[in-house]
Amino acid sequence: MAGNGPAPQKDAIRRNKKPEFTQLIEDGSVHGPDLPEGVLPDGQQWHPVTRQWWENWRSSPQATRMLSAPDWDYLLDTALIHHNMWMNGRWDFASEVRLRVAKFGATPDDRNRLRAEIVTVPEVSEGLDTDVIQMSPYKNRRGRLLSEE
């Protein structure tokens, strides 16, 4: 089986260099183009699984690093293979799709190999008055202690 060897450990440390991971921030926005229409032979429509796969990539944190048209062109070529795999049951294409999406960091091992980690930003919720610590008693006590000196 072809591959690049084992993925590096996330906490692996060399004496001369610490590993640096790129943080991919999940921002919730959609990047890249829609799947183009009219590119499949005989007027076929994209397979529903391929449509969902494409939308998952567009909204993924990895998409924030796909800044140029060639990145999306390469993923579109992969989508054509993915479509053929699902439409015609050509599971022998699965290994090619796996190798291609690994370049974008599809799995945790792929991201570890690329030294990339996904960071999810927690949503800020409305705070309740009971969640806020009232600082005035502490300020008053501090003032009293400082004035006694």
From TrEMBL:
Region feature (Disordered): 1-20
Stored Pfam families: Terminase_7
Feature: compositional bias, Basic and acidic residues: 11-20
Domain of life where this protein originates: Bacteria
Protein's recorded name: Terminase small subunit
